[in-house]
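We emphasize that the prediction below concerns an isolated chain of 410 residues; any contacts that depend on oligomerization or on bound cofactors are therefore not represented. The input was used exactly as deposited, without trimming of termini.
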Amino acid sequence: MPNVSVERIEKDLLALSRFGFNEQDRGVYRQGFSDADMEARRWLMETFTSMDMKTHMDGAGNVFGRMGPDNKPCVMIGSHLDSVPAGGIFDGALGVVAGLECIRTIRENDIHLDYPIEIVATSEEEGRFGGMLGAQAISGKVTLDWLERAQDSSGELLKDAMARHGFDYHEVMHARRSPDELRAFLELHVEQGPVLESKRTSIGIVEGISGVFKWMVRLIGKADHAGTAPMDMRSDAFLGLADFTHEIQRIIDEEGTEKSRITIGFVELKPGFPHTVPGEVDFTIVGRDLDPGVMKALAQACRRVLSSIARKHGLMFEYEQMSWLEPSYCNSKVVDIIKQRAEGRGYSHMLMPSGAGHDAQFLAEITDTGMIFVPSVNGVSHAPDEWTHWDDVERGANLLLDSIVVLATD
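Result of the prediction step, given as a token string:
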């Protein structure tokens, strides 16, 4: 098989990075349905047109470029174009521009395909408005009620942000693609974690994407004067949280696996004054695993432990489940194809889960799906210093190319 041109991938990635680039912190600010996001989408459509590909943008803001006939199911490849605030240049964008390079390489080498290839740049994957709008729309996993209520952290409604760019949010409901239109979906992405680099492995072949549950937890005690309330007579809400954090590793050891994660990412003490014993603490618990049964066991263990700790410290314990997303599994045949192609190239590789969410988890509901990871330097992502070495980019794109050819050929 021929090799891609990593120089062209680099050129495209740097061109895309201009949209939303901030000179001060060197980060990319290309949040979903921002001006920079829409400029990047127009650039991509112009690029598709210059490559004689058929292109369009659907009602959810997804951009498509197609090579091949319309009357056959396609092998879809791609990722997202939006970024988090102060993001890096690789997250999402790599999967899109690698797709462009695969098309160029296929054409230059007159590689015969029996099925069309369609590149997708999904919209609003980073969750500015609380979901993965583009992929959810393609897979039919979005509701009109959610579209009308969704808002970002500043309170701006999704439907208003869309309207500023000429979108009618009702059209999102027409973005669904039938499973009959798709033969497979492949996504190339940076790992966004330290595993591949630490193991000196070039390629991660994703088995599946971890399920996620998110709780908002409240422990309620009694606010007291920090100087006059004796230590043994307090109902200190913070001590309840502190005790729980020490139990997290035990919960994973007893109920979880090496793929389990439990994270407390947000904490708010009330009243939040240095000379007052905290009478209330609100915090989040986010749990992840690739096995739905393990997820449930982790959640039940968290509830038991919190109830016990609340009794110990004389606290009330309340929680609300904000979301529960089941694990999503990659197709075993597609995984085998990627593995065989990696072996054929002599690339070191390993099977691994994805702890982060990706477009692939929704596409997996309507078509055979696979995902390829390449290493992230120091495991950094969602930050200006996100980086993946160009030789790793080249290996990932070559493997994407090889896998496309197999999947698009009878």
